[in-house]
Amino acid sequence: MPTLLHIDTSVFPGEVSASRSVTATFRKEWEAQHPNGTVIYRDLAAEPLPHLDGLAAAAGFAAPDQRSPEQHEAFALRETLASELEQADTVLIAAPMYNFTIPSTLKAWLDHVIIMGRTAGAEQTTTSGTPTVVVASRGGGYGPGTPRESFEFVTNYLRKTLGDGLGLDVTFVVPELTLARSNPAMAELVDASDASKAKAHEEAAAKAKELATRFAA
Length: 217
Fold this sequence. Notes:
EC number: 1.6.5.-, 1.7.1.17
Order of helices and strands: EHEHHEHEHEH
Helix content: 40-55%
Structural class: alpha/beta
Distance between the termini: 12 Å
Pfam family, one: Flavodoxin_2
Number of strands: 5
Shape: globular
Low-confidence stretches: none
Keywords: Flavoprotein, FMN, NAD, Oxidoreductase
Function: Quinone reductase that provides resistance to thiol-specific stress caused by electrophilic quinones.
Number of helices: 6
Strand order of the largest sheet: 2-1-3-4-5
Subunit structure: Homodimer.
Mean pLDDT: 95
């Protein structure tokens, strides 16, 4: 049975978080289609990873039999995280926009799993082709033609890092204007916010079903 790697990163809990609510929709549909499947779950807000340090970084460039005992110890977490990514048949990532980019906890995860010559840096990586759904929520609007289009450093960054770097097959689901109901200055955008949220949930459920059909085949 297929394995789903599900990563949440929002600092807000449950339904308060747009990204968590949409990843929950995807996962619910995924589990309905694969009741006997495996889900590897990491909540990087509740259990943040340590930042990559010099020992762990250097170990990634050394052959396993050439690593010092200290490097072996430092590389253990990277090995665990990379292995989780490698064994996943589908990856689900919540990437809410914080200060125009991804949460630092997600960046820490990326720094650990990007291993040159293994998950990255080769024409065919150990993660090439894995379908990946990224829920990129944001409080405002940053789409093409909007005043803040140039401030969008989430999908642009992750498309390059996950797609070009790790070789993942990336699809973005983007609930936006999520602050409209809590920010009086955005009152006129409430309907657009609600529509965007509903569309995101529909897209997440549809993508889960699509991938379920692919694996069933």
